Amino acid sequence: MWLMQLADGVRTVVTDRTGGFSTGPYDSRNLGTNVGDAPRAVARNRARTVAEIGAEAAVFMRQIHGVRVERVFAAHEGVPDTDAVFTDTPGLALAALGADCPGVVVAGDGWVGAAHAGRVGTLGGVVPALVEAMRKAGADDLAAFIGPGACGRCYEVPEEMRAASPLAMRSTTSWGTPALDLRAALTAQLADLGVPTAHDPRCTIETPELYSYRRDTTTGRFATFIWLT
Ligand SMILES: [Zn+2]
């Protein structure tokens, strides 16, 4: 697991594949439901992870590459049709699940938020929607952290898709073909909102201890967590 301190009284953890109960292509700390893994293994992985990171409870989302933001107050195994959540409840860890899509977590003024920001969600503005919701709730001084995702040197797409994407998202693979750079696009969105951003430098496709859909197709999901201590 990978830890960082985004703000005073805030903790962020990125999980990896190790130390869980799942087997086969989900080996072993898969935190995602609906990917074909045994539900009992996922439930045990979630419970173990929440205990190990030192949170009291966790909120997971049923992510749909949308832009809906919901304020949460208590543990949830899957907030329906939601790609961003925020809370001011201490000890309640918010999870953005991914296997190439970056999780983005935001903190400030006693609030934390988490968003699942893949290509579609980033284009739709899920992270700006989260920042706006948190600011409306009273969190002015925000900072963000972008979790691991497919990097701009690996995330190959058709040329038409690159051409239709915002400039900040356009990239080229290390082998010279069209690509997208979600981290760059997200960093630009957050900068436009005045939110300073740090990131996990790891690329999911290039990092065996992280799940990658691009690399493995049938696979699990890791989480980027944030909570108030
Ligand atoms: Zn890469």
UniProtKB/TrEMBL annotation:
The keyword Metal-binding applies. The lineage of its organism: Bacteria, Bacillati, Actinomycetota, Actinomycetes, Streptosporangiales. Pfam families: Cu-oxidase_4. This is Purine nucleoside phosphorylase. Keywords: Copper, Hydrolase, Metal-binding, Transferase, Zinc. Transmembrane segments: none annotated. Belongs to the purine nucleoside phosphorylase YfiH/LACC1 family. Coiled coil: none annotated. It catalyses: S-methyl-5'-thioadenosine + phosphate = 5-(methylsulfanyl)-alpha-D-ribose 1-phosphate + adenine; adenosine + H2O + H(+) = inosine + NH4(+); adenosine + phosphate = alpha-D-ribose 1-phosphate + adenine; inosine + phosphate = alpha-D-ribose 1-phosphate + hypoxanthine. SUPFAM superfamilies: CNF1/YfiH-like putative cysteine hydrolases (SSF64438). Purine nucleoside enzyme that catalyzes the phosphorolysis of adenosine and inosine nucleosides, yielding D-ribose 1-phosphate and the respective free bases, adenine and hypoxanthine. Also catalyzes the phosphorolysis of S-methyl-5'-thioadenosine into adenine and S-methyl-5-thio-alpha-D-ribose 1-phosphate. Also has adenosine deaminase activity. Gene3D superfamilies: CNF1/YfiH-like putative cysteine hydrolases. GO terms for molecular function: copper ion binding; hydrolase activity; S-methyl-5-thioadenosine phosphorylase activity. The keyword Transcription regulation does not apply.
